[in-house]
Amino acid sequence: MLIAFLVLLAMAGVLFFIARRDGQGGHICGLRKGMGMFIRLAPLLVLAFLLAGFIQVAVPPELIQEWIGTKSGFKGVFIGSIAGSLLAGGPYVSFPVISAINHSGAGTGATVSLITGWAVIGLGQLPFELTIMGPRFMIVRLSTVFATPFIAGLITQYFFG
User: Are residue 72 and residue 88 in the same domain, yes or no?
Assistant: First the structure.
């Protein structure tokens, strides 16, 4: 977490000084835009972290270990793939939830299939994809990535399980 923070801080610092060089107040505009985005996203972030905390407390770790734990094998990876594809929200919401599930006893393969299912299938984004890209594109894309979360989870389980 510290490394990610330092990398982001360095990137923000470099961009701040690049924007400041133009003499047009771009650095101040960038700060305002960033603060506006933070204000809009803060409630979502707070709820996502609360949800992640409640998952760790309300859902018994034994249940998570039974369904998608290290010893759940094929079943856990399959459930992780399906659950990941059903998980709605962007990374600010999904990663805290997936992290809470992982810390509650999910297996590595199931956790990889959760993330991969969310990233490549993401049923919550399908209405947008259908509307903007069209049904043919959506069907082609889904047919090419449908098995990816499951395969990624199985490979992970095999090598790192």
Answer: yes
Cβ atoms of residues 85 and 121 within 8 Å: yes
pLDDT of residue 10: 96
Is the Cβ–Cβ distance between 110 and 79 less than 8 Å? yes
Residues 158 and 134 in one domain: yes
Residue 123's domain spans which residues? 62-161
Q: How far apart, in whole angstroms, are the C-alpha atoms of residue 156 and residue 150?
A: 10
Give me the DSSP letters along 97-118: HHHHHHHTT--HHHHHHHHHHH
Instruction: Give the percent of the chain with pLDDT over 70.
Output: 100
CB 9 within 8 A of CB 34: no
Q: Residue 66: is its pLDDT beyond 80? A: yes
